[in-house]
Phytoene dehydrogenase-related protein
Amino acid sequence: MDTTYDAVVVGSGPNGLSAAIVLQKHGLNVLLIEGKETIGGGMRTMELTLPGFKHDVCSAIHPMAAAGPFFKTLPLAQYGLEFIHPKTLAGHPLPDGTVVSLHRSLFETADQLGRDTKSYIELFKPLVDHWDALSADILSPLKIPDNPIKLGSFGINALKPSTYLAQKFKETRTRALWAGMAAHGIQPLTNIATSAIGMVLMAAGHYGGWPMIKGGSQSLADALANYFKAIGGKIETGNMITNLSQIPDSRLVMFDLSPKHLLKIAGEKFSKLYCWQLNRFRYGMGVFKMDFALSQPIPWKSEMLRQAGTVHLGGTLEDIKKSEKLIWEGKYSQNPYVLLSQQSLFDKTRSPDGYHTAWAYCHVPSGSEVDMSGSILSQIEKYAPGFKDSIIGKHTFNSRDIENYNPNYIGGDINAGVQDWSQIFTRPALRISPYRTSFKNFYICSASTPPGGGVHGMGGYYAAKRAIKDLF
């Protein structure tokens, strides 16, 4: 390739695309390189089961895409992005047959919670009311906050283990709803700062919803890519970068890669200290994922669950706490916490007329090749008798398959590294800027940098801003 670019971005996940857009908008000539034939990273949609059934390969529901500060500044609707908002954001059935749910309305959610109504409103109303001011601080690297007083009140609770914060609630249903949210952190609920995950997801839901994307998550990747190209950016697919000689000359290189793969490609350029730091970066639990083609909607016992875009299965807080602890210890749960989405109920483009899709996963030990199909099916069947009879096609990914699909997901870790207290702000290494590597004008912008996992693009945004400041 004889073209010299100002910047090259390696990897086209939400952070790579975001970094490329920020750099291009600043006036740089940017090339984005993607190893696969299609862009998107975790934002891809494929016919995994049967022809005509569209399944999101990784990300499926996008609260942070809707509520995050960066994507809102881009005219993505003009490039085909359409959010679809389910009537109920998330439902959580309990063993006694009742269901508790997260709604867009803070007060509608709180009204279900009996003795906890006041406590729930007191916890979340300040965060929801000030989300516009706080989100840039919450979804950022460690820095002097723009809103220190408001952020401080959030931080006091966010740093607590989710099991500790659950003591605010008296009702079993409230504690279960809270546990299902906190368990998105893919670590034991007793870990410090697991409350941050639950608080951010619930507040984002009350602020911007938990939408799915019409046509699948690939549509978000395509909208970002089409906007990037419209402002002059260039994209090259089908070029899996394995060494630096494949990267054209440029003023800077931005890597949307895990520390492990960054070391493989560019480790020879880095200092011994930085290599040591990247080698110490810790990856978390994996996932086992299933996609279903269905002859009918999931036959939930509860009407509420038939209106929910997302369903959390796993029982009470105590049940989910036990399950996540077992998996963290390298064991398996017979009652796994299962995250399920049913996009075709709300998006008719996902399946042929009269048919439906479902998307589900549970957590497993890192690198697991154990088939968890039976456990996931039993968990769904418990609350939707007859579900198994409605399956006309299915597809599975174990943790090794997940990593093979996306090399950034080491051991099947879709958060690209444990997001515990020791790696929230220091991912992937303790440095003045987490996005700078030890080699001048090489940057890392993946989900292994702050603020971590999720489809929000903020790692790429902040990495690009850092690179621009260094260059100019």
Residues 91-210+284-405 form a domain with the Polyamine Oxidase; Chain A, domain 2 fold (CATH 3.90.660).
